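How a chain folds remains the central question behind the approach discussed here. For one protein, we set the task of working out the structure tokens from the amino acid sequence alone. The sequence in question and its structure tokens are set out directly beneath this paragraph.

_____
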Amino acid sequence: MVKYGADEVSDNNETTLEDVARLAGVSNATASLALAGKGRISAVVRDRVIDSARSLNYRRGLEKIQKLRPVTGKLALLLQIDPRWTYAWPLVQPIIDAVDTGVKSRGYTLVMVPIRNDMKPDRVIEDVRSVEAQGVFAPITDIPGLFDRIRAENLPLTLILDNSRQEDISTVGIDDFRGAYEGTRYLIGLGHRDFLYVTTGRPNIPLMASDRYVGFLKAIHELGLVHDQDRDIIFPIESYNLLKDKLERAMKTGRRPTGIFALDDAVALRTIRSLGELGFSVPEDVSVISVGDLLDYRQDFVPPITTMQIDSGMMGTLAADMMLRRLDNREEVESAPAVLKTRLNLQERGSCREITEEKSL
């Protein structure tokens, strides 16, 4: 007799699911889902469970694996090469690596399809067709009309880092609102009560910028604090001198802020350098926090900045899983697209410090 669940045994009545789970270092439930190709199990964990089942000759598990025979196919990832997106590469690269790992576990090859903002949708479609892609990942893409053209080709489409079409296209995004809210609450917890909000124009991703600002304001208003618009510094990313001038006015006129929330760490980097040229030290004179990580903190020239860190690897893993599920159920019409938003995690690097009540006055 064959039992199921924690006591499930193979046909030879020797190896159990529990044995496989123990060898793989996972729970029985995780092992069962991995062998069945179900659940949000990472490719690394799934491979470890499968290897454990094979090494133990777990026949029932191996039969499940056989039903999930790797397919041979290609999936396209639209790789943004427009210079205006260069700043986002440190964020995008781990996403690509995780997507590649995830789709390879099922036998798919991930093919990079370079795109630029000035390309026409039809040209992109031609390139996608040329690689015979069965689905498309779009990490950061702002070519008008492109998404609708991809869908017209009846190709599964998964957006990454782009919440603009989450109402009708499956999306893996960031909880920008909550990230900014929790980052501001972190500063408040350190005793800060007077803030600057420093941002730049990101016309390609306006929803991201607005969500972060609203999250910042919510944290402040919850404590009954007031944030005046003259405490918002907006500057073109290429205009360093304008940022410096605005910071000088804010830091040397009237009540000096003790905390700064920057849109992202590319903005925070420029802010910190400007402050240094103005004679202010971070975090001694003012604390700085931002959403990140757009910067490579392994580089000596990048200052340590406390960030609400985006889990790029998790985003890639979730995007791969989302795509594979759609490919497994091609006959189903996606009437309600899947939308997943990853949470940002505090990464302390020393650009914020606790202040006393006297210091904040």
